[in-house]
Amino acid sequence: MFSTKPLHSFHLSSVANNVAEINSIDDLSCLKELTDSGEYIVIGEGSNTIFVENYMGTIVLNKLVGIELEETKDHFYVSVSSGNNWNDFVVWCLSNKIYGLENLALIPGTVGACPIQNIGAYGVEVKKFIDNVEYYDLESGQICTLDNELCEFGYRDSIFKHDLKFNTFITKVNFKFPKTWQPQVDYAPLNKLTNPSANEIYDKVCEVRALKLPDPKTIGNAGSFFKNPIVSNKKADELIYQYEDLPNYHFNSTSKKLAAGWLIEKAGLKGFSLGNVAVHDKQALVLTNHTGNADGKELIELASYVMKTVHDKFGVSLEPEVRFIGKHGEVKFSELNQNIYG
Ligand code: EPU
Question: What percent of the chain has pLDDT above 90?
Fold first, then answer.
């Protein structure tokens, strides 16, 4: 048995039957053996994955590292192995004068995880710079390449959460950066900067994140626990009429995205704690293992309470953004809730 506590950033106490590492492309054939012999899940740094129960399978850790750079007159092409740490890669780009990812500073996790949920922050989503994604197809044993348009990127979403959820292991993310750079500073508080350099944007984002988001090394958490909800224009307009300061963003012609953190705060839950778990007191969209001793049951209980309270007050359903691992692999929040309380 192996403790999962150090393997995921929420640091819940649970165990897994086995742990394996992928250190090279050759190791990938062992994944094929694992699929035949039992259950497994792949994780990078476990920053968006929560082990809510003891896991009966093998946790496969992605340790593929390396970066290759090529350039043309107008673009940089950077090929990054999936096990590289995300923020190290952002810093590497800045030190090579390759700009574009500075708004995505300090997002925890690996490069391989970035296309899966199309990470985004401060007005930029990673899909803007992904040229294609390489993955190992466990069924065919082949390395495949999927161009950006085929990755079906959406808000915290991609094909890797749907049709390619199973039997794929992302090996590389290939980025394309135009050499002409435009700062993206529409999003507060970056909009206060005048004519910033990419390095200044990076520093500002680090400063803001450090103020609002708990460092997972000291307080267990998985970043935003819920997605910002997408509601119809009609529903959004009703709420905005009632609550003028409700932060809302255009999503598409029929719907708007609302700030879940605001809804949770206005429902009176910012800083609320239940045993060992809490709603973070500086950013209500983040749940924390504030004592370091939380278990999955407490977390599900707190998340359910937050969802119910927000729904009762605003008639808006929140959906978790994180991935839950139960006894036999990934589980939907609704199933977990039923298993524990049903
Ligand atoms: N707000 C509150 N109370 C709170 C939290 C937020 O009133 O407790 C308000 C803020 O004042 C602001 C609005 O809600 O007007 C949005 O807040 P913020 O800028 O902090 O961003 P967010 O929508 O809560 C999203 C991402 C974050 C990303 C930030 C910054 C999601 C689920 N989360 O959060 O991503 O860092 O924008 O761009 O989209 C993550 O995915 O783990 C993550 C941290």
Answer: 92
Structure-block tokens of residue 318 = 């929140």
For the chain, report the end-to-end CA distance as a whole number of angstroms: 28
Ligand 1 centroid – CA 34 distance (Å): 38
Cα of 31 to ligand 1 centre, how many Å?
37
CB 261 near ligand 1, within 6 Å: yes
pTM value?
0.95
The 3-state DSSP class for residue 337 equals helix
Residue 23 CA to residue 45 CA, distance in Å, equals: 14
Pinpoint the alpha helices (H) of the chain: 28-37, 86-95, 198-212, 233-242, 260-266, 296-314, 333-341
Phi first, then psi, for residue 34 (nearest 5°) are -65, -40
Measured from the CB, is residue 223 less than 6 Å from ligand 1?
yes
Contact by Cβ (8 Å): 270, 281: yes
- Peptide bond before residue 183 is cis, with ω within 30 degrees of 0: no
Domain architecture of the chain: domains with CATH: 2-62 (3.30.43.10), 67-178 (3.30.465.10), 214-341 (3.90.78.10)
Rounded to the nearest whole angstrom, what is the distance from the C-alpha of residue 261 to the centroid of ligand 1? 6
pLDDT for 341 beyond 60: no
Residue located nearest, by CA, to atom 43 of ligand 1? 224
Question: Where residue 186 falls among pLDDT bands split at 50, 70, 90?
Answer: very high
Contact call for residues 66 and 88 (beta carbons, < 8 A): no
Nearest atom within ligand 1 for CA of residue 259: 14
Residues 201-223: b if buried by 16+ CB within 10 A, e if exposed: bbebbeebbeeebbebeebbbbb
**CA gap 125, 282 in Å, rounded:** 23
Q: Is 62 left (phi over 0), alpha (psi -120 to 50) or beta?
A: beta
Secondary structure class of 47 (helix, strand, coil): coil
- Residues 298 and 287 sit within 8 Å (Cβ to Cβ): no
Whether 121 lines ligand 1, by a CB cut-off of 6 Å, is yes
